[in-house]
Amino acid sequence: MDMYQNILVVIDPTTDEQKALKRAIELASKIKSSNPEQAINLTAFFSIFDFSYEMTTILSSGERDAMRQIVIKEKQQWLDDVIAELKPGVSIESKVIWHNRPFEAIINQVIEHNFDLVIKGTHQHDKFKSVVFTPTDWHILRKCPCPVLLVKDHEWPQQGNVLAALNVGSDEAEHLSLNDAITKQANNVAQLIDANVHLVNSFPGTPVNIAIEIPEFDASEYNSAMQKHHKEAMNQHASKFGVPVENTYVEEGLPESIIEQVALKIDAELVILGTVGRTGISAALIGNTAEHVIDQLNCDVLALKPHGYVSPLAN
Question: Where are the domains positioned within the chain?
Answer without folding.
Answer: 1-121, 154-315
